[in-house]
């Protein structure tokens, strides 16, 4: 049993010194057990760190996903896109929410918060359970409205630290052109002019006020996303270097 516990420990924590790895004696608490208790090793459950979150916001097509994959490579974050998680859930044949999610996505509207948060939380938990060191997350496309924000505060209050909001600021026309270009190969049901009109409206009416709210709190780090991918990433790197 102890050896099984020890194996669990290996994945997450530093190994105890070799003399602590001897097999247990038949009965009674051994010196080793007492020592382990004193040293407070927790073999069953590696202690998970609190997730450190950067919310990534901006209009549709501002380049959030593009920049997030670069941030992942350079700074070791895990990228969770609310839109991707919802699309994955929609595509599961046994999902009870598939049809509902598709309807919201096609209309460019915001999916009910309970669904989005449960998907985000599940992915964060999975990531950290697989590797306790992986506690830094880029949450892309969230919080998109007041409902998202309240849901996050209710569910995640005290359970995660939001470092800052990375805001990709991009002209609406550029956003639309990029999404139409992406739509030639993305297969997305919302990369078309009709859906994009609605998505831009949703962004302006629902998401921008959330960014403004965080701005008042001094939490927004804004990047001019109309520049080239490399230029935008150059500015992003400066922010992450500074924020640590
Ligand atoms: P978002 O995640 O914000 O919806 P994406 O990262 O998917 O946006 O980018 C939308 C489209 O625009 C993609 O086809 C991508 O290749 C392209 N793109 C992203 N950033 C830039 C940029 N800075 N300049 C030109 N095209 C870009
Ligand atoms: P995106 O991939 O970020 O462009 O998102 C595509 C669509 O997924 C949006 O237009 C919404 O319908 C849905 N969606 C993405 N993020 C959220 C969110 N945080 N809350 C609810 N719906 C979302």
Automatic annotation (TrEMBL):
Recorded E.C. number(s)?
2.7.4.14, 2.7.4.6
Has UniProt tagged this entry with the keyword Hydrolase? Answer: no
For biological process, the GO terms are:
'de novo' pyrimidine nucleobase biosynthetic process; UDP biosynthetic process
> Can you tell me which residues bind a ribonucleoside 5'-phosphate?
87, 109-111, 141-144, 188, 199
Which portions of the sequence form the region LID? 181-191
Which residues does the annotation say bind ATP? 61-66, 182, 227
Localisation per UniProt entry: Cytoplasm; Nucleus
Obligatory cofactor(s) = Mg(2+)
- Record text on cofactor binding: Binds 1 Mg(2+) ion per monomer.
Q: Where is this region: NMPbind?
A: 81-111
Task: Alphabetically list the UniProt keywords.
Answer: ATP-binding, Cytoplasm, Kinase, Nucleotide-binding, Nucleus, Pyrimidine biosynthesis, Transferase
Q: Where does CMP bind?
A: 148
Q: So where does this one cross the membrane?
A: none
* Reported function: Catalyzes the phosphorylation of pyrimidine nucleoside monophosphates at the expense of ATP. Plays an important role in de novo pyrimidine nucleotide biosynthesis. Has preference for UMP and CMP as phosphate acceptors. Also displays broad nucleoside diphosphate kinase activity.
Recorded domain comment: Consists of three domains, a large central CORE domain and two small peripheral domains, NMPbind and LID, which undergo movements during catalysis. The LID domain closes over the site of phosphoryl transfer upon ATP binding. Assembling and dissambling the active center during each catalytic cycle provides an effective means to prevent ATP hydrolysis.
Entry similarity comment: Belongs to the adenylate kinase family. UMP-CMP kinase subfamily.
HAMAP family, sorted: Adenylate_kinase_Adk (MF_00235), Adenylate_kinase_UMP_CMP_kin (MF_03172)
Q: What is this protein called?
A: UMP-CMP kinase
Q: Which organism is it from?
A: Sarcophilus harrisii
The primary gene name is CMPK1
